[in-house]
Design goal:
Arc Repressor Mutant, subunit A, 4 strands, DUF3253, WH_DNA-bd_sf, WH-like_DNA-bd_sf
């Protein structure tokens, strides 16, 4: 895992820590915080960071309110603490 990947994971966790326990974030929020100008290029890495955190049990990735596997989910996803 390189520095950007680690920063994205830390940012996802940090953003969730700042929210209500039942709130979610979009991976793009973490990408924007890490690189405000190049965030779009970071989206695959942000989704991968969410996937690693989900695999570790730290977060859940959802789509339409249902927990999904981010590696196969297409379209927008949200990230939340496990419910």
């Amino acid at each position: 895992m390189d520095d950007v990947d680690a920063r994205l994971q830390q940012m996802i966790e940090g953003l969730l820590d700042q929210r209500r326990p039942d709130a979610s974030i979009c991976p793009s929020e973490a990408a924007r915080a890490v690189d405000p100008d190049g965030w779009r290029d970071l989206m695959p890495a942000a989704r991968a960071a969410a996937g690693r955190l989900a695999a570790a049990g730290e977060v859940e990735v959802t789509q339409g309110g249902a927990v999904v596997d981010v590696t196969v989910a297409q379209g927008p996803v949200r990230v939340r603490r496990p419910q």
